Amino acid sequence: MRPMPGTADTAGAHGTPSAEPGPGGAAAAPANRLDVVDVLRGFALMALFLVHVIESYELFWAGEKPGLITDVVFALFMGKSFSLLALCFGFSFFILMDRAAQRGQDFTARFAWRLLLLEGIGFLHSLIYRGDIMQTLAAIGFLLLFFNRIRSNAVLLGGAVFCLIGPSLIVQLVAGALGAGWANAPAQSSVDPGMPVYLGGDLWQVLRVNLWAGQQSKYWFFLEYGRMVQILGLYLLGLVLGRTDFFGNLAKSRGWRRPALLGALVAAVLLFVTREPLRLWFSGLHYGLGADRAFWALLNLWLDLAGTAFWALLVIALYDGPARRLVQPLAAPGRLTLTYYILQSAVFVPIFYHYGLGKYADWDAATRLWVALAAIAVQIVAAHWWLARFQYGPIEWVWRALTYLRRDVPFRRKAPARG
User: Fold this and answer.
1) Ranges of H-type helices in 32-107
2) DSSP-assigned letter for residue 390
3) What is the pLDDT of residue 64?
4) How far is Cα 162 from Cα 156, in angstroms, rounded to an integer?
């Protein structure tokens, strides 16, 4: 099981909208936005949605049926889209804290409250879809409040690299090779009491199992496969990108982005091609079950990171060049990430699960692919229609209003937006 959803709300700074109280007491309306961040987030959200539909919102893992479509979609986007969203979350944190600092305010307590709200939203969403990651993103987000006090970008970047290379998996590998019992025990994430309910239970049974029992395999997965530490590393990287104004001044990075893009592509291809031979080679060394599992997880972690870097740099390159019109439409859904993320589950979980239409057993991979692509097109069009009339998505507005404990956060646009 690889539940990889995610969400992040960018608000404030470098041209991103902010909801801080304005001069008249009401929360300020949006200013100009950093479109490139919205495009990146929109791309990640749509890619993540594609993965979710192809895997039938996790039911695929009850009886895997490998095929060309599933293999290609998973290889291209699984783990990468989630990582892009986590990266954007770290950048969003910088935006909020930096804007508050420019006003001479400390946003620490407000951001902590904002994270608690996200925990609550994530809990409600997890009752529908146990793959929700908002709760995990929010919990790890509290660590950003500590790391933000470190002023050295070099230290933060070093911490990000340390987290991203998979230190917890390296510890598991060494411990497993040395015969540690805990490292060589069967993976707890392989025990999934929720799956039988999703395949055959009614709505009430799904809601009940998702209160806790169904969530356990997800959290074990994050712990056993290094995802918790990876998220922190992506947060720190997003924070550094914000501090260095990477997204606000793309021209400054043009010189190194092209070779970095090529390097990420080469690394991703090499890891994809060699990971299975490497797994077989390492298994032949007979270090034990725990070491074998950790080594395989490391290979996949590094592959996901190389793929994440490739997609991020490719989307930015397209945006920062003559092909911008190809990715610009993704900015609108990127501004509705939280609303769309929850809405996608609310619509498609009942389509696939037993208590709804039960299409998991009826739709083959090709059908799921076409349904996902059609739904992505609808979401892009609907996002543009919505944002021409409203300043925020409905759930973004609720989150923002609760963050500031006020109802006067602007919602409707006074005049239809252009473009």
Assistant:
1) 35-54, 68-77, 80-102
2) B
3) 78
4) 10
Residue type, position 158, single letter: G
Let me know if residue 366 belongs to a domain: yes
Instruction: Answer yes or no: are the C-beta atoms of 55 and 77 closer than 8 Å.
Output: no
Res. 113: pLDDT tops 90: yes
Over residues 133-145, mean pLDDT: 96
Q: How far is residue 382's CA from residue 324's CA, in Å, rounded to a whole number?
A: 20
Identify the domain containing residue 322 by its residue range: 35-404
CA 228, chain centre distance (Å): 12
For 24, phi and psi rounded to 5 degrees? -90, 5
| Helix (H), strand (E), coil (C) string for 328-346 | HHHHHHHCCHHHHHHHHHH
Residues 197 and 208: their CA atoms lie apart, in Å, by: 10
pTM score of the predicted model: 0.91
In the 8-state DSSP scheme, what is residue 124? Answer: H
Specify if 316 maps to a domain: yes
Q: What is the CA radius of gyration of the chain?
A: 21
Please check whether residue 23 lies inside any domain of the structure: no
Q: What's the DSSP call for residue 193?
A: S
- Is the pLDDT higher at 45 or at 414? 45
Number of structural domains (the chain) is: 1
State the DSSP H helix or E strand holding residue 181, giving kind and residue range, or none if neither: helix 181-184
Burial of 124 (C-beta count, 10 Å sphere; 0-12/13-18/19+): exposed
Q: How far is CA 47 from CA 31, 283, 347, 363, 401, in A?
A: 27, 33, 17, 20, 29
Q: Are 183 and 263 in contact (CB under 8 A)?
A: no
- Cα gap 24→410, rounded to integer Å: 13
Mean pLDDT of the chain: 92
Residue 413 lies in a domain: no
Residue type, 34: L
Residue 25: per-residue pLDDT? 39
Under 8 Å between Cβ of 105 and 98: no
